[in-house]
């Protein structure tokens, strides 16, 4: 049985524009003016299945073996947000540190993750995995372990204790304030293979997508920095995360319904721009 080609072109639809060849990041689409594009002989060895060739074709003529054109959703230009809408979304995002005592439906969280997975990843690795700490008791466990690490780091005089201002944080915690996970009902943890060097940056990007998408659903987020730092030093936290064997946590985020709404966009200092 002959091997299936990397991609196929519907010659009745192809207009021979060459866009697929021009946009291929690894240059494995061979194209000559007036001819139908075809894969170079070594294409299968280096194709990263990013889908650029399928997405850019104006007629839907090209299909990857792993990605048929009719399986890829058509972009609806009518719902593309304006610059004003995007600018307001980005500038009005706030880190939410006061949450309603209310769970988010699992279907809503899944919706966000399914959107965030379209964030860029190095070499289209798509290697970031997700763990949703959904139950309140498990969130509280992670918070408690983070505080345990803080007390130990402070008592031991660890240099990071001063960097993080743990003396003041612990005073606030002892006064009854949740300065770790802020009463959030859920925690989203991104993780990947310990050997994946691209995963940490990919995880940060995908969580940035996640938090912006969350705002459009009326949800609030905040980066769980204290817990992430503690996890890198304190094995009990990593154990409580119950990640797959061989995986390490990358970045984490609180999620829930904000108790308060924001009505203005705070000012920011002018950007430091250097033109060359």
How would the blueprint of this fold be written?
Elements: E1 7-9, H1 19-23, E2 29-30, E3 38-39, H2 43-46, H3 52-56, E4 62-64, H4 83-92, H5 106-116, E5 129-133, H6 136-156, H7 159-163, H8 166-174, E6 186-193, H9 199-216, E7 220-223, H10 225-233, H11 235-241, E8 247-256
Helix pairs in contact: 5-9, 6-8, 6-10, 6-11, 10-11
Task: Please give a handful of descriptors for the protein shown.
276 residues, alpha+beta, Alpha-Beta Plaits, NADH Oxidase, 2 domains, four-stranded antiparallel beta sheet, two-stranded antiparallel ribbon, 11 helices, 8 strands, 13% strand, elongated
Walk me through the structure.
By secondary structure, the chain is α+β, with helices and mostly antiparallel strands. The protein has 2 domains: 7-71, Alpha-Beta Plaits, CATH 3.30.70.20; 91-256, NADH Oxidase, CATH 3.40.109.10. 38% of the residues lie in helices and 13% in strands. It is built from 11 helices and 8 strands. It has helices at residues 19-23, 43-46, 52-56, 83-92, 106-116, 136-156, 159-163, 166-174, 199-216, 225-233, 235-241, and strands spanning 7-9, 29-30, 38-39, 62-64, 129-133, 186-193, 220-223, 247-256. The chain is elongated, with a radius of gyration of 23 Å. The termini are far apart. The model has no long low-confidence stretch (mean pLDDT 96).
């Amino acid at each position: 049985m002959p091997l299936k080609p990397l991609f196929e072109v519907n010659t009745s639809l192809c207009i021979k524009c060459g866009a697929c060849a021009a946009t291929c990041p690894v240059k494995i689409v061979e194209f000559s003016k007036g001819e139908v594009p075809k894969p170079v002989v070594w294409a299968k060895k280096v194709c990263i299945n990013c889908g650029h060739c399928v997405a850019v074709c104006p007629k839907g003529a090209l299909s990857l073996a792993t990605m048929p054109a009719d399986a890829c959703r058509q972009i609806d230009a009518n719902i593309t947000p304006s610059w004003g809408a995007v600018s307001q979304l980005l500038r009005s995002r706030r880190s939410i540190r006061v949450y309603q005592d209310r769970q988010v439906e699992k279907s809503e969280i899944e919706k966000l993750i399914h959107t965030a997975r379209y964030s860029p990843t190095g070499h289209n690795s798509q290697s970031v995995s997700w763990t949703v700490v959904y139950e309140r008791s498990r969130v509280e466990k992670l918070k408690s372990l983070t505080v345990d690490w803080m007390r130990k780091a402070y008592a031991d005089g660890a240099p990071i204790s001063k960097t993080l201002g743990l003396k003041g944080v612990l005073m606030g915690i002892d006064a009854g304030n949740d300065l770790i996970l802020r009463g959030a009902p859920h925690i989203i943890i991104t993780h990947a293979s310990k050997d994946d060097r691209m995963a940490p940056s990919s995880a940060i990007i995908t969580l940035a997508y996640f938090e912006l998408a969350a705002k459009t659903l009326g949800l609030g987020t905040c980066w769980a920095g204290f817990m992430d730092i503690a996890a890198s030093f304190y094995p009990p936290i990593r154990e409580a995360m119950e990640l797959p064997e061989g995986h390490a946590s990358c970045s984490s985020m609180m999620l829930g319904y904000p108790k308060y709404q924001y009505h203005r966009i705070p000012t920011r200092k002018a950007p430091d721009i250097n033109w060359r």
